[in-house]
Design goal:
Largest sheet: 6 strands, antiparallel
Order of helices and strands: EEEEEHEHH
Number of helices: 3
Shape: globular
Oligomer: single chain
Structural class: alpha+beta
Radius of gyration: 14 Å
Strand content: 25-35%
Amino acid sequence: MKCGSTYLLYDDENPASKPHLHVVISDPDENDCIVLVSVTTERAKSDTTTRLEARIHPFINDPSVIAYNYSKMMSCDQLKRLIETEEAIPKADASEIIVHRAQSGMQETRRAPREVQECFLAWWTKQANK
């Protein structure tokens, strides 16, 4: 579980839906938590803060966006358990371009859950001060 890892995860609010690609945009913090953002196909009313072109990642076949409103944070242990139960499926790592764009968008968006954005910004600030 490191920055740039990707996983197919189900939506917390609708586990019957199809899983979406999630990108880890932080390394584990001092509490062993990571921040993940959700990738979804771009639609007419999508948040276009961060657009991703088709085929920028092996799992992205259509023009897509980061859906910051579905961002989440979780412990590495929690993610490991989801992998063990096949509720999270590892995919190819994201490129530095995807990660950088998603991180920049997380700093700008007003759609991410506040606690997730605060967790990311705390991690980001520590990285900048290293």
